[in-house]
Amino acid sequence: MAVFEVRQGTSPVILAFPHTGTVVPASIWERLNDNGRILADTDWHIHKLYEGLLPEATTVRATFHRYVIDANRDPEGVSLYPGQNTTGLVPETDFDGVPIWKEDEGPADADIAARLRDFHAPYHAALAAEIVRVKAIHGVAVLYDCHSIRSHIPFLFEGKLPDFNIGTDTGRTCAPGIERAVAETAAEAVSYTHILNGRFKGGWTTRHYGKPEAGVHAIQMELAQSTHLATEAPPFALDPGKADQLRGHLSAILERIEAIALHCRDHA
After folding, report:
1. Is it the case that residue 257 has pLDDT exceeding 60?
2. CA nearest to 60, candidates 127, 125, 1
3. C-alpha angle with apex 119: 229 to 134, nearest 5 degrees?
4. Which helix (H) or strand (E) holds 8?
5. Which of 76, 98, 148, 184 is the most buried (most CB within 10 A)?
């Protein structure tokens, strides 16, 4: 299987999709329990939601499911949020804290090492290569990491998640102007809520690649699934009306990011 898909564009913006994949190799699928096989923690339809919004953006998408290995986790297994509930490099539970593997079928160290080699590393090699290519063209690259999550998950956070969850590792992963533009555009979206560096401050991808001093900016957008799904439960169907409304705001965000990056290039 191809573990990633790349579409090369000419924009300084790169869209990454680490969690929209639903492919689970048969040897791993057999070890998942009935709960795991629901694949509930997929970022459902997110690559379709962004499709065509910025026509010349490069896209890099993992095709494998996060239960195989999580492409947005530190390969060393270090927690992104020490002291808080989260899921690891190869999750043992879903986002509700319920086991996803059959008894005694959870991944051992050798399994994790093999999945790092066969899935995690190739995806990030492709993403890193596109960052280098885009930066060579423009002198700057902006990585926009695309995510979604259910709006209510008591195991991970209290209450209802805001609609737009913007993560920059408290300003470390991108220039202030990019962070400000995304937050302002989200704030202008009538009937939507937003937060900057709230529960989700940007995953490993954002923190690893975001080096604004070197001309590589990274920002994570975690969308509440209530903004675009008909229901946040199986079959996790897309609501076309919600999606169309949301796409307008996402388009505005991406266009502002691209304009800032091109301005930086032209005034370097």
Report:
1. yes
2. 127
3. 80
4. none
5. 148
